[in-house]
Design goal:
The chain has 277 residues and is an alpha/beta fold. It folds into 2 domains: 124 residues, 3-Layer(aba) Sandwich (Rossmann fold); 137 residues, NAD(P)-binding Rossmann-like Domain (Rossmann fold, 3-Layer(aba) Sandwich), CATH 3.40.50. It is globular and about 55 Å long. The structure holds 2'-monophosphoadenosine-5'-diphosphate (ATR). 2'-monophosphoadenosine-5'-diphosphate binds next to helix 6.
Length: 277
């Protein structure tokens, strides 16, 4: 018989089979010998609200939320963290005293991945250049600013999307066109691709980064392939790189800690499991 302390969590999305979250949380549940479970639950949009409320009434500790529910998750929450509010989406719900607390851990996952992957990286090292202006860019820019980036430059195919995002974040953030990127690289210490370009099955990201200073760090949110052409170009230039797999793994840490009571670590075995799975 399951004891009262059996802890349940899940990821909900539609479709759900592509989610790596069960692999990540399943690994930690085993590693830390947690009396609990983490399931993948497919919920079509029309069932999302009822589905989450069912989890709440069934005693779940909370859930991750993935496509297409990340925005709706904010609307059904009783409490929304500042970062989820600013990012405009939630990926982590924690159920406490029958209330839904919504959080977004993508940005902090991005930051913690760079901190674990580099001995010397800090957002405060200098200007960051962010390629892309979608949801991932929003989470990453928010986190870079929180962590002390003095300036963030957004470059995007559709310049007005970059401008809109820059206006939202205010004076430390500006927008440029893709053609202006090469000219500003000399000042950039953190270079990040937040678009899907370079992912298997997508067009390649064609950008010349040879003007970056030798101290710059280059990272990509694409982790499939693990070494994107952006990262291999950076490595050929002798620049430090951090791949995107760690962002996915680190974004899972706060949810696991809230639901299961242990702060997990991102280790090499977890990387291998998720890369192979
Ligand atoms: P996510 O939420 O994962 O960030 P998104 O909101 O769809 O996804 O954002 C995708 C980003 O990748 C956008 O910045 C998009 O540029 P546009 O604003 O011009 O659409 C960028 N992107 C996607 N496909 C692209 C392509 N083929 N070339 C250049 N940029 C592309």
């Amino acid at each position: 018989m399951m004891s009262d302390t059996f802890k349940k969590a899940a990821v909900v999305g539609w479709p759900i089979k592509q989610s790596k979250s069960p692999l990540i949380h399943g690994y930690w549940i085993k590693k830390f010998e947690i009396n609990g479970s983490y399931e993948a639950i497919g919920l079509p949009p029309e069932n999302f609200t009822n589905g989450v409320n069912d989890l709440l009434s069934q005693g779940y500790r909370g859930c991750n939320v993935t496509i297409p529910h990340k925005e709706t998750a904010l609307e059904i929450a009783d409490f929304v963290s500042d970062r989820a509010k600013a990012i405009g989406a939630a990926n982590t719900l924690v159920f406490k005293d029958s209330k839904i607390h919504a959080d977004n851990t993508d940005g902090i996952g991005f930051i913690n991945n760079l901190k674990q992957g580099s001995a010397s990286w800090a957002a405060s090292n200098g200007t960051a250049l962010v390629l892309g202006a979608g949801g991932a860019a929003r989470a990453i820019i928010y986190a870079l600013l929180q962590d002390g980036a003095p300036r963030v430059i957004i470059a995007n195919r559709t310049e007005k999307n970059a401008k809109r995002l820059a206006d939202f974040f205010g004076e430390r953030v500006s927008a440029i066109s893709i053609t202006e990127v090469f000219g500003v690289l000399g000042d950039v210490q953190t270079f990040v691709n937040t678009t899907s370009l370079g992912m298997d099955g997508q067009p390649d990201l064609k950008i010349d980064i040879s003007n970056l200073p030798k101290t710059a760090l280059v990272t990509d949110i694409v982790y499939n392939p693990i070494t994107t052409s952006l990262l291999s170009q950076a490595q050929e230039l002798g620049l430090e790189t951090v791949d995107g797999l760690g962002m996915l793994l680190h974004q899972a840490v706060p949810g696991f800690e809230a639901w299961f009571g242990v702060r997990p670590t991102v280790d090499a075995t977890l990387r291998q499991i998720v890369l192979g799975g």
